[in-house]
Amino acid sequence: MTISADEDFWSLYWKNESSLHFLGKVLLGVRKHFWVKNFTRVALKYSQKGKVLEAGCGTALASIYLSKKRGDQISALDKFTYAFPLIKESALLHHIPI
Asked: What is the mean pLDDT of each run of 10 residues along the chain (98 residues)?
């Protein structure tokens, strides 16, 4: 069995996200606040309330924010199992069933 460079990178990223060094934490904050905020703004403007499927979701914050803003039913998935506890943690933190 071989693991591609991308698989190795993302597995390590999600596995170690909670113990990131300073720069990693800064980049995580930028991702959460810039990407999620802008994605959510565009999705709210150009889509209707309903069901959201976020593939390759990482922490699923974009879907969670959509659900929080307008009550969308969300399904989030990621290829890497290390992301799953982070998805559950994000959903619990924001009181969103996932």
From this structure: 54 63 72 83 90 86 89 87 82 84
Distance of alpha carbon 52 from alpha carbon 84, whole angstroms: 17
Q: Kindly give, in sequence order, each residue whose CB lies less than 8 Å from that of residue 23, ignoring residues fewer than 6 positions away.
A: none
Please give the pLDDT value at position 3: 45
Give the separation between CA 36 and CA 88, rounded to whole angstroms: 17
Q: CA 69, CA 5: separation in Å to the nearest integer?
A: 36
DSSP track, 8-26: HHHHHHHHHGGG--HHHHH
How many of the other CB atoms lie within 10 Å of CB of 64? 26
Is there a contact between 98 and 66 (Cβ–Cβ < 8 Å)?
A: no
In this predicted structure, what is the pLDDT of residue 78?
85
pLDDT, position 37? 85
Handedness of CA 38, 41, 44, 46 (dihedral sign): negative
